[in-house]
Amino acid sequence: DTGVSQNPRHKITKRGQNVTFRCDPISEHNRLYWYRQTLGQGPEFLTYFQNEAQLEKSRLLSDRFSAERPKGSFSTLEIQRTEQGDSAMYLCASSHRADYNEQFFGPGTRLTVL
Amino acid sequence: AQSVTQLDSQVPVFEEAPVELRCNYSSSVSVYLFWYVQYPNQGLQLLLKYLSGSTLVKGINGFEAEFNKSQTSFHLRKPSVHISDTAEYFCAVSRTLHDMRFGAGTRLTVKP
Predict the structure, then answer these.
(1) Helix, coil or strand: residue B94
(2) Contact A107 B104 (CB under 8 A)
(3) How far is it, in rounded angstroms, from Cα B67 to Cα B3?
(4) Is residue B107 within 8 Å of B11, Cβ to Cβ?
């Protein structure tokens, strides 16, 4: 079963460090989305790509956050100078042009900033 | 901008009993509505969606939801729950299919 995969599954870092997460979408899914989920809350939209183009960014995505999808396949989300408030689950999802209605989610990367 | 309110943070229920998880949304324009389920240590999985047409939507695992435009609600129901339905359930609203807004979630606990 080749679903959406995310690596690493868990990341513990110290405040001020940079971290990078990777998302591999389902093959041939041209849209890829990033969400953040904090404890007791639902996922919050961060940004999405159609192929390699980043088409929308939420105001939640401060200038410390950057996302890329250079070849239209996998994507990376980098957080620079991490803060304790960045601790959350970072979710990736993808969807196919045949049915953008359904987003398929990965298991997430849990970030803990000490 | 659209938003979602899930009225119950936790719903305990006995096995084989019916359940309703409530969801209200606010939006000044037409929206698409979704219910997702999240099992422990797994990603979100789509249960069902309302795009247009019939207001009663049937999904996987015996769940259904009814879109009520006048009450701006999209409540999720199942006539008889199983232990395996224990999970977190999220209601979501979208105007453009990429800007999904999720509720805070309802934890359904099914007791034997």
Answers:
(1) strand
(2) no
(3) 15
(4) yes
Confidence of residue B103 (pLDDT cuts 50, 70, 90): very high
Strands B10-14 and B23-26: unpaired
In whole angstroms, give the CA distance from residue B112 to residue A46.
Answer: 39
Interchain contact A48–B (C-beta under 8 A)? yes
Which positions ≥6 away from B67 have C-beta within 8 Å? Answer: B33, B50, B55, B56, B57, B73, B74
Calpha distance A112→A10 (Å, rounded):
8
For the purposes of burial, counting CB atoms within 10 Å of the CB of B18, is it exposed (0-12), middle (13-18) or buried (19 or more)? exposed
Q: What integer best gives the mean pLDDT of chain B?
A: 92
Residue A34 amino acid letter: W
Whether a cis peptide bond, with omega within 30° of 0, leads into B112 is no
CB atoms B104 and A56 under 8 Å: no
pLDDT 10s digits, B16-57: 999 999 999 998 788 899 999 999 878 899 999 998 888 999
Residue-wise pLDDT tens digits, A56-76: 888 888 899 999 999 889 999
